Fold this sequence. Notes:
Elements: H1 16-21, H2 26-36, E1 71-72, E2 74-76, E3 79-82, H3 92-101, E4 114-118, H4 121-124, E5 131-135, E6 144-147, E7 153-157, E8 165-170, E9 173-179, H5 185-194, E10 204-209, E11 233-237, E12 260-263, E13 269-273, E14 286-290, H6 295-302, E15 306-311, E16 314-324, E17 326-329
Antiparallel strand pairs: 1-7, 2-6, 3-5, 4-5, 4-7, 8-9, 8-17, 9-14, 10-11, 10-16, 11-13, 12-13, 12-14, 15-16
Amino acid sequence: MGRRPIDPESSRFPSLPILLAGFFSFAAVYTILSVVLNPNNSPAAPFHGSAATLQSQGDGEGGDGGCCRGIEKLELWGQAVKWGSEFKFNSSRECCQACKTLCSGNQGPCLCDSWVFCGDKEACGPKFGECWLKKQKDVLDPDRQGAGETTMWTSGLVFGRGEGIVGLETEYGTLHIKLFPDCAPRSVAYILELLTLRHCAGCQFYRAEGRGDSWDSEGNHIANAAFGPPFALVQGVVEAQGTPFKRVEKEACPTVRRGSVAWVGSGPEFFISLAHHPEWKHEYTVFGSVMPEDMGIAEKIAQLPTKPDVWNGINVSVLQKPVPLMFRRSQIKRQGDL
Length: 338
């Protein structure tokens, strides 16, 4: 799998790991990839992009409650649940965790869905360490007080069970996606911006590859099978025409699993995985996950007519007719939501 040849970044990374993957066992592939994975070499998956060149901490974090990230130089407003003047911590992570403790129950809405922390000693002065826990009127459209170099605050969102679910509409049905703002805050911020658009011309799925004989229906790899092609994914782009896309910094990169929604490099190309891909290691920013009951829609798209192509030496399957897509608000809350 790779970026489309028209992408100027497409030739920056060789496809050696993918060529090797079809001939060696998983253990051998893992060993080889551990050697070639560095800022100047290929990522461990069939994409060509900038993922390996962007550094971040905690790349193994995932959307399972282990992350606690925010956006620096951003101050969110909202109703205060805890007043920062009386509630202080040494780090933004501790502030985030405090918000999560008010959003960990299975009953009712979260008492806290956003946090604001002052962590720059020089800029914050006596406000250093202040942790404001807040409740937004609309968590999908949080109230921003300020942003930019003059802002000394770091802010983040927390989505509780049944919250932070958006719809990815296609003609084949709507994929409901649980977003991970605590793991990929900048990525989620961009998706929330897309919710405000009336249309998303140019946003589409253009590549579709099923699980083939390599993965079972639950996304588990079949012993001794190749790791692709096909690579068990649908790939698309979410850059609306007339709206320039700003590269997303690499954020939390957990193991890609069935349903994972992640950037190719730093966007705007993205993919939905139809299988578990531990062989890709921690190379891709995962900013959401498709609800399990909607994976049938992704599988349906993966079975649409395609034509073969070769991108930078990688055999891919390109949709004969791209599938337009659009992010929309979703009011659906289901029992068992993440």
